[in-house]
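Field notebook, page 385. I keep forgetting to write these up properly, so this time I am using the form the group agreed on. The chain and the ligand, adenosine-5'-triphosphate, are recorded exactly as supplied. Prediction of the bound pose follows.
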Amino acid sequence: MANPFKPTAGMTPPVLVGRESDLDDFRYALDDGVGAPGRLMYLTGARGVGKTVMLNALGDIARDQDWLVIDETAERGFMDRLIRALNGESATRTVKYQTPGLTLDIPGGLGQATVNLGAVELEHGELSLDFRHAMTRRLDGMDESRRGILITLDEVQSSSIDEIRALAVGVQHLIRERRNIAFVFAGLPSLVEDVVNDDVLTFLRRAERRHLGDVPLPDIWSAFETTISDSGKNVDYEILNRLTQATNGYPFMIQLVGYWTWRASETAKRGDRITMEDADSGIRQAKLKLGDMVHGPIYDGLTAMQKDYLLAMSQDDGPSSTSEIARRLERSAQYASVYRAQLIKLDIITASDYGFVDFKVPHMREYLRSHAVHHQMRRTIEDMA
Ligand SMILES: Nc1ncnc2c1ncn2[C@@H]1O[C@H](COP(=O)(O)OP(=O)(O)OP(=O)(O)O)[C@@H](O)[C@H]1O
Ligand SMILES: [Mg+2]
């Protein structure tokens, strides 16, 4: 039997759990007409919380209403791709716009660099204008009382800030001209915050922010129930409880737990029944995969001090006292609080109680404990005592 669960980044899950009200709000914003606040929106949240699949779902809503939807990822050159898509051109044409990095790479003295910088700014002014023209042409060609254009931009980060500026300036003009458009962008919280707080882009600060987080356990329970039974297997109440608990409300974990449990039952050739054994083996496998796919990349992307902060936290079985963490790191409380704030902003930890922090990403503690450095720090702390 085909496995209904989809533990793959960006893959639409069988049931999009716990996001119904966000989707309803967007539907409302499209119906509400030009200038509705929900038409300018951004999604943030930790890795694997479901930003990309939300963008897909919002796109589907717009498509169902016969809107033109263009999905882009904020990598270099995305504006050129966007404009070409609007103009109905193929994506294989040579790139017309040079990225600022390339232009500035040209060797030369300060004089030349300044000239090049001027050219870059001009280029982005042009990009913005080209984008507006392409949008206007497209909108003019459609019955705007009925249809519009939605642009979704994923993986927003400050390295593409120039192009995002060009896009935002264009969108701002189009909104002012009361065109029938919507713009939704998404990314990791700290990266999106950098872009939204850019001085040039004050306009984006007025966008509606949706911080995607954990989803309610009862909704996960029902999603497991329907997905499993609709796909032809039986599963009882206790097992559903176990599967649900193992997710900790973390969306990616729903797919991982579901996928590996389903697979265990297929491997065991138990046909149409999912047993507690399948669930236990599925959960075990899901945790391992979560380490490879989520914890590893998160951890590797941190600075040395941020890593040490997490390792110090992983020594505790529950929430950690921030003053105790500072002591373990042999740093002042103020010094440690800088890293605490950074990790909270990255959605990796959370301030659980006054003076306490806890892991937000599920099973992160177990992952860190399986690291050799964890034991290294344990020894250091014991030596200190
Ligand atoms: N609300 C949800 N209900 C069920 N499954 C979900 C939900 N949201 C996301 N998923 C599943 O979680 C996984 C990760 O989703 P997605 O790739 O959209 O996350 P992301 O936030 O874009 O992550 P990243 O920051 O790495 O880009 C996918 O397998 C997806 O099917
Ligand atoms: Mg994504």
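OBSERVATIONS:
- The pocket of magnesium ion (ligand 2) is lined by residues 9-10, 51-52, 154 (CB under 6 Å).
- Residues 92-120 have pLDDT under 50 and may be disordered.
FOLLOW-UP: compare against the apo run.
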